[in-house]
Write a structure and sequence with these properties.
With 88 residues, the chain is mainly alpha-helical. It has one domain: Helix Hairpins. Helix 2 runs antiparallel to helix 3.
Length: 88
Amino acid sequence: MGVVFSVTFGMLCVAGLLSLVRLLRGRGTLDRIVALDVFITLIVAATCVDMGLNRDGSNIALAAAFALLAFIGSVSAARLVERRESHR
């Protein structure tokens, strides 16, 4: 079972690096917002995989709160950018 967790962590790390590249080299603001949201989602997923590996669910509320805050932040930033674009 440890192999499955190792492969999962590896794939999450590769996806995290790719989303960081997109965050740094994104063409527009919305691309960067989406890349940051994906990166935060990958961090939450890695935390959940770690909880599964250790068989300890004590951080599940923290992961859920962090994911919710990331979602609210992404939606707020997207609306702000949308309002700026419509005023031009």
